[in-house]
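tool_call: predict_structure(chain=1)
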Amino acid sequence: MKTFTQFIADAKENEEITSLWDMTSAFLIPRDQMPQVNVEDFVHRLSQLSIDWVKEKGIPSEFRPTQIDFDSEKANSIAMELSANGSDDNNPIIVSNDLYVLDGHHRYIGSIISGVPVHVLAVDLPINKLLKLAMDIYNE
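tool_result:
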């Protein structure tokens, strides 16, 4: 598995991708420390807690990662799948209201590589609160 820095270095020939990320804006949490979110369950819990969220579709070029580790083969595979089949509404990228990715980093990269819009679950919490909530739920 590559680190985010290695992924960016390997993608230098693609200026569109490398210009999107500012390493100083990322949280850079190792993948094994990130919560593994079940979208259906998470939406249910957000609703129980009266936390607003909205599902939309778009290319997540303004989002910022919270995870440092990426599997470039997986991201490229997702990009090819998106190009062939489009986005899966049941598997959105989860983002905070300050545009950080909580879950779906490989889909995030795949969308940017392919240029194919993906489904996004935007939660009305800043990343520090959203990350704490997800970790409290899924890292029990």
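agent: The chain has six helices and six strands. Proceeding to next step.
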